[in-house]
From TrEMBL:
InterPro entries: Asn_synthase (IPR001962), Rossmann-like_a/b/a_fold (IPR014729)
Transmembrane segments: none
SUPFAM superfamilies for this protein: Adenine nucleotide alpha hydrolases-like (SSF52402)
GO molecular function: asparagine synthase (glutamine-hydrolyzing) activity
Signal peptide positions on this chain: none
GO biological process, one term: asparagine biosynthetic process
Entry protein name: Asparagine synthetase domain-containing protein
Superkingdom of this protein's organism: Bacteria
Matches recorded under Gene3D superfamilies: HUPs
Ranges of residues in domain Asparagine synthetase: 49-188
Species: Helicobacter canis NCTC 12740
Pfam families found in the cross-reference section: Asn_synthase
Amino acid sequence: MDKIYCMSHYLAFRYIADESKNFFPQLSHRNFTPNFTHDLIASVDELDSYIARQMQGLDPSTTGIMLSGGIDSAVVASYLPKGAKAFTMRCIASPTSIDETKQAALYAKSYGLEHIIVPIRWEDVLARLDSIFSFDGVPCHSIEPLIDICLSAAKSMGVRTMCLGESFDLVFGGMDKLLAKDWGFDEFVERYTFLDPKRVLKEYVDTKEVFEPYRQGEKIDFLRFIDEIFAIESSTSYWRMFEKNSMRYLDPCQKVKMAQPFDLQKIRNGSPKYMVRELFARRYKDIAIPDKIPMPREVEFWLRDYVPSRDEFVDGAHIGLSGDQKWQLFCLEQFLDMHDPRF
């Protein structure tokens, strides 16, 4: 048990890398750990053929896809059999909430998919937290309740295999902000640390140790860090919710690696995921490539009045935080209340 360590690492990285460290004695947690060899892809033609092979033989009556308005899931959707179900999440929050349903509907119509909109309400998110905490053994990423709601809805409709393009950002150079420059060590630590624990906790541990194995003098091997640290954080949230819902996970490019290093100049000049963008243009000749937006999570609106109150937090810990950072505090507080009630 090491509550201080776990709080610090959850806030900094949105997951706890050391599986031997837990918040409380009765808890345990696991992370997604890739244990496969990579399939190398050298061209768009190879990528096209590869995805087609991975998607062969799917039964439309039991197959679905988590379809956003972006290009990754759209590309995957284009290989599904007609009649498969396409699920798009729609957060019900402020009047200016992100709405990807219209864009996703264009993709679904292009390939004869049944388009289903899954509404996400704050009360639904709250209702999921206890079961997610119990399953994960740790506080969760803000996308986990959304995934849980979506998978639960899909399962009730007979879906047993859910497709997605979760790996595409990592595999094909979609993390354009993290790839934007050759980072100095200290500036990358500041850029990547999601919420610095010393900013909000009375007691904390220094989380810089996670970055040290990637130090190269005053620089950092940010590409290896992304491959090894970000990859686990990114995939773990999905993996846990798929296991929780006993749903088969099908990401056709999960085992892919580009045969050549990223063309960083191309990415930095405004063409991230250049190989996927070209494939999208082939598969959707009449649809323009949309701007990239993250999975819609209306935490900025939902947590606009949130003020943390547990003794572990410094006074005013919420002040100046983004909505996603507030989620980290809120979720940690809810998790601690579940296992260490104040009243």
